[in-house]
Specification:
366 residues; five-stranded parallel β-sheet; 13 strands; 38% helix
Length: 366
């Protein structure tokens, strides 16, 4: 099959859960014999500009304005037109914002699979108009896609209850079992000591809750431990600037967006992983932390209530006192390394499940 993918900022090594999802999924589909093209957004490919292939996946760069309110919609419209020129058997659109263009893609004669990664309109960074547009994108994806993939039962319920879409395909996000790094040169360059720091990973946006994590951290007197928040802002704004200021005042280590060996070292030698998010789909960063056998403390939102975790791995959302107590309790009774059963999140299985969705879509008469 010929598959064109849009809705992602791009691959490889671009910050974001959807981006990690695509980087893991599409090389596997290419290795299964499919012709896969990922259309990337130009502002995010400086480090790989001119790259035309990644692990068997073709890469195609299409313009996107570097403006939060216009980036996704303008790029997606241009990407749909580009996809039509490529003549795919399947156009796969990721996320509810880009899914707004699903009717346009269908009008151009393409069969469309969308993946709903979660209700992005609940993210705190969006204003009222943006929320309405994202909500409309969710509706367009649910109503006009040939097939809809959801990454959690919660999302499946939203689409069934709100739009009558009862035939969604549940396919989880995945994670690879890593080879842990034995090196410590990078973490030592940050002033970190193995097993004596707590790590959080993600974009610097309000719904990730990093400001609350810092507030909780400052309530503790843990002179033997440091807090590390690895990530950055896609679009620097007042929140991300305030977060960086808070972090500096609290002595938090901010290594920026890291990947490869640097991220491997950070995860390999951490004592605890923290995720204080108010909004997630199925968080890949949490799955990655679990793949490194880390103990975890996460908010009690539905997306983080994984069956592989225990009740004491959660704390009430936005309760910084409870988060501080949980961190202190976890560090006082260390459980890292802690083995987690991640058999439900195998990328090879996910690739086969996705291929089957494509086959059913192509075989259908509508």
């Amino acid at each position: 099959m010929k598959i064109v993918v849009i809705g992602t900022r791009g691959i490889p090594e671009i910050q974001g859960g959807v981006e990690t999802h695509c980087q893991q999924l599409y090389p596997r589909l290419a290795a299964m014999g499919h012709d896969v093209t990922v259309i990337r957004r130009t502002p995010y490919v400086d480090g790989s500009r001119g790259m035309t292939e990644y692990k068997g996946v073709k890469l195609c760069d299409v313009y996107a304005p570097r403006r939060k309110s216009l980036e996704a919609i303008v790029h997606t419209a241009l990407a749909v037109i580009k996809a039509r020129a490529l003549g795919p058997d399947i156009l796969h659109i990721h996320a509810v914002g880009p899914a707004l263009l699903t009717p346009f893609a269908r009008l151009l004669g393409m069969k469309v699979v969308t993946t709903n990664h979660g209700p992005d309109y609940n993210r705190k960074k969006w204003g009222g108009m943006a929320r309405r547009v994202l909500k409309a994108g969710e509706r367009m994806g649910a109503k006009f896609s040939n097939r809809v993939i959801v990454i959690s039962k919660t999302i499946a319920g939203i689409l069934a209850d709100n739009y009558g879409r009862h035939d969604t395909d549940l396919i989880f996000n995945g994670v690879e079992k890593p080879v842990k790094s034995i090196r410590t040169d990078y973490i030592e360059s940050l002033g970190l000591v193995p097993s004596h720091y707590v790590v959080a990973v993600g974009r610097f946006v309000e719904e990730k809750g990093f400001h609350q994590l810092i507030e909780a951290w400052t309530k503790l007197n843990l002179s033997d431990y440091r807090l590390v928040i690895a990530g950055d802002a896609d679009h620097p704004d007042e929140y991300s600037e305030r977060l960086c200021s808070m972090a500096r005042e609290a002595g938090v280590v901010l290594p920026g967006f890291i990947k490869g060996e640097k991220l491997n070292q950070i995860f390999s030698h951490a004592a605890l992983f923290a995720m204080p998010s108010s909004h997630e789909g199925l968080p890949i960063a949490l799955l990655e932390a679990m793949s490194y056998d880390l103990d975890v403390i996460v908010s009690d939102i539905d997306a983080c209530m994984l069956p592989e975790l225990n009740a004491d791995d959660h704390y009430p959302l936005e309760d910084t006192e409870a988060l501080a107590r949980a961190i202190e309790r976890k560090l006082s009774n260390p459980r890292t390394p802690r083995e987690h059963d991640l058999s439900a999140y195998n990328w090879d299985t996910i690739a086969r499940q996705t291929e089957e969705v494509y086959r059913r879509c192509v075989a259908a008469n509508v």
